[in-house]
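Case 891 in the screening queue. Each case pairs one protein sequence with one candidate compound; here the compound is 2-acetamido-2-deoxy-beta-D-glucopyranose. For every case the pipeline is the same: read the inputs, emit a complex structure as tokens, and attach any notable structural observations.

Predict complex for case 891.
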Amino acid sequence: MAGVVHRFLLLLLFVAAAAMPASTNAAASSQTEALLAWKASLTDATALSAWTRAAPVCGWRGVACDAAGRVARLRLPSLGLRGGLDELDFAALPALTELDLNGNNFTGAIPASISRLVSLASLDLGNNGFVGSIPSQIGDLSGLVELRLYNNNFVGNIPHQLSWLPKITQFDLGNNWLTNPDYRKFSPMPTVKFLSLFANSLNGSFPEFVLKSGNITYLDLSRNNFFSGSIPDLLPEKLPNLRHLNLSSNAFSGRIPASLGRLTKLQDLRIDDNNLTGGIPKFLGSMGQLRVLALGDNPLGGPIPPVLGQLQMLEELQIVAAELVSTLPLQLADLKNLSVLNLAYNKLSGNLPLAFARMQAMRDFRISSNNLTGDIPRDLFTSWPELELFSVHNNMFTGKIPPELGKARKLYMLLMDDNRLSGSIPPALGSMTSLMYLDLSANNLTGGIPSALGHLSHLQFLNLSHNSISGPIMGNLGSNFKLQGVGSSGNSSNCSSGSAFCRLLSLENLDLSNNKLTGKLPDCWWNLQNLLFMDLSHNDFSGEISALGTSYNCSLHSVYLAGNGFTGVFPSALEGCKTLVSLDFGNNKFFGNIPPWIGKGFPSMRILILKSNNFTGEIPSELSQLSQLQLLDMSNNGLTGSIPRSFSNLTSMKNKKLISPQELFQWLSSDERIDTIWKGQEQIFEIKLPALNFFQLLTGIDLSSNSLSQCIPDELTNLQGLQFLNLSRNHLSCSIPGNIGSLKNLESLDLSSNELSGAIPPSLAGISTLSILNLSNNNLSGKIPFGNQLQTLTDPSIYNKNPRLCGFPLNISCTNSSLASEERYCRTCEDQYLSYFVMSGVVSGLCLWFGMFFSIETLRYAIICFVDAIQCKVTQKVSYINQFLSRGNTA
Ligand SMILES: *[C@@H]1O[C@H](CO)[C@@H](O)[C@H](O)[C@H]1NC(C)=O
Ligand SMILES: *[C@@H]1O[C@H](CO)[C@@H](O)[C@H](O)[C@H]1NC(C)=O
Ligand SMILES: *[C@@H]1O[C@H](CO)[C@@H](O)[C@H](O)[C@H]1NC(C)=O
Ligand SMILES: *[C@@H]1O[C@H](CO)[C@@H](O)[C@H](O)[C@H]1NC(C)=O
Ligand SMILES: *[C@@H]1O[C@H](CO)[C@@H](O)[C@H](O)[C@H]1NC(C)=O
Ligand SMILES: *[C@@H]1O[C@H](CO)[C@@H](O)[C@H](O)[C@H]1NC(C)=O
Ligand SMILES: *[C@@H]1O[C@H](CO)[C@@H](O)[C@H](O)[C@H]1NC(C)=O
Ligand SMILES: *[C@@H]1O[C@H](CO)[C@@H](O)[C@H](O)[C@H]1NC(C)=O
Ligand SMILES: *[C@@H]1O[C@H](CO)[C@@H](O)[C@H](O)[C@H]1NC(C)=O
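Case 891 output:
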């Protein structure tokens, strides 16, 4: 209140002073004081350090004065200023015509007193952190021509007073949290040319006042989810001057109105991501001014009309995920200016026409996830000099990978995975000097990995998995490598083996899994200092993983070597990999003790899989220091001794743990690029994946098929987050811990084929989540506990070969001491599926299981789908979930 009175007095003084002759000095000092007071109120005004009384105000940074020496313009964009506007005495700046604070760090609300800037013509507060509602008093600034408040955190309704601004031409309130104004109070805004309300929380039908603002040339109502209803037929009559129309990411439905064809000046039409139906109308082909046409993410259906080939000015055509059933019309080849074409995620079939080579401006080409067949025409790569991104994954292309790709020197992303390409990888790919992403996975490729790929010094992501690629990766040393010697750091001298891979120093994500690769890993392998994710599983690699000197940086998060012929003791080379999160050595020939240093060495480890090797000795109690560990599988080895009591200290197994998708992705690989894409699409991601709220990490221990002995430690029952526990096929004795029932999240418990004795603890019946139980082949005795969950486990074989058990579901009544001796095969002995299921996800309220490998696939699909379109990701994800579900059911 005091402040208001104070300012009011100042205003009176000023008015009084202005009425007198020789007023300019007083005015000058008042504006100087006002600006200095404001500067003093800012928490960061470093950029304004030269604003002092020593210099005349008109010479200050960002300040411009009129002939009378009054401050007329304040232009302070992007200066890192922090603070608010509360302390700026607007009344002291009556001649100010322009206030530009764009791109600073201003917070707080806009004071209503801003209306004292009686001369203001241009107000730009965009790209700051302003909050609160927009003061209706801005509507009093009758000289305002430009109003830019975009990219802030304004809330509340748009004040209808703003529609009264008589001279306004630029009106940009985009990307705030504004809600529905009462449009009935809005007057038409005939002077507005640029109107943007994108990314707010507006809804309802197309706003009436917009239709009455007939001079609009640029209209952006995108990303409001949800303007709804139909796109008005009257648009061309009401807004004849439209050049840019963006209605993307709303809920407009119905057909694309035929009247739009009368918008003869339209250059840019974006109506993607709505609920539009009825196919792609042919009239679009006669809108000769169009540069950008985005129709995707609508259930349009129907074919791609060949008339679109007439759009001579067209630079960008996006019809992703629109249920198109069509071939690729040859006529599109006439689009000589087209640089971006995205037709991914439709039902397109037929060939990729050779004629497309005529689209010489092509920079970004995406037709992934369709049903296209035939060869990928090699001429594309010699005819498209600007090509940067080429994505054809998930089609049915056959033939060889064209060596002409080597001519695509600007190509940074090449995604050809999930096709039926055959033949070998052409060495010419090594000439794609800009390449950062290469995915050739899930094809039918044979032959070796050409050493020329070692030239790809920018390569960050390499996926050749799921092919039939063979040979040693050490091979093809090639003298050209030794000679080339450019672009790699001093480390390359370590790479005396000269393996091509050791030159890929930018590599972050490497997947060679599911091929037929052989031989040892090169010594220099662990020098790939940027490598975060490495999957070499399911190949025929062999040999020891060599120990290295101590001084190397290892940034690996994930190492998958499962299903090879690696041998030797637990590799000390990993000792430097402090950031390791998942390690899978399963199904190899490693032997020797499990080294105790693992416990301290991998503080972030969540997954440790050593199953089906030849590890011997005792389980080191130090493993309990892995405080993040969620999944431990050491089954099928030669481990002896007892289960360490210290396992009760495995902190992450004590509680059920949920993680957000963000965390999940970071965990799977914090690959910077992925992260960047992720952030860039954050908004869209949030919109598109509302159902996928969180993930639950699967928690479990599998020590089955070893030679462990002694009692099951009571302490294990402290691990209340455990969802599965498999201790079967050991020599465990004593009785089952009495409070086993405190493992209240347990879904699967297998203690079969041990030497357990005594009664089954009644608490077991209280585990309501238990759906798999196997206690067969022990010496348990007495009555099987009755009730609750156990009542649903009716298969008697789970109690087989315990000669002295009785009661339901066995056919032995407890008064009868005769022994059950029916032979049955243990059905779950061989199941390994649990170790593949590392996550569960919640999708649309259904609890679904899906696997670790799925999640890694997700990452891959995440990349691809962020590139092509976000929505597909859900599709991919769901289809993978289904796949894993069916696997789970048959396991
Ligand atoms: C505001 O400051 C933060 C750091 O505190 C910075 O990350 C952000 O980019 C700044 N915003 C603008 C618009 O400069
Ligand atoms: C618009 O959103 C508000 C809440 O934000 C809601 O109450 C209203 O029903 C919505 N109107 C329409 C037409 O969807
Ligand atoms: C466009 O603006 C001019 C001048 O500002 C005005 O006279 C005219 O009425 C406006 N046109 C429409 C359709 O509102
Ligand atoms: C809407 O389209 C215009 C071009 O018509 C574009 O400049 C603008 O960035 C788009 N808006 C959003 C939020 O992407
Ligand atoms: C899309 O429109 C159809 C009718 O055309 C309607 O049934 C459906 O609910 C709409 N979907 C959304 C997400 O608005
Ligand atoms: C793809 O095309 C083949 C024949 O060309 C057909 O058998 C198959 O069903 C199609 N797949 C899809 C998903 O449309
Ligand atoms: C891969 O190629 C082999 C022979 O070269 C063929 O038998 C097999 O069917 C092909 N697989 C696919 C998925 O096309
Ligand atoms: C495991 O090691 C033992 C002795 O250490 C050896 O006899 C046995 O053959 C090995 N098994 C495998 C599968 O390598
Ligand atoms: C668990 O850890 C604590 C502190 O680190 C230690 O004192 C305790 O002995 C450990 N428990 C077991 C069973 O090893």
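Case 891 observations:
- Residues 506 and 537 are 22 Å apart (CA to CA).
- The pocket of 2-acetamido-2-deoxy-beta-D-glucopyranose (ligand 7) is lined by residues 420, 422, 444 (CB under 6 Å).
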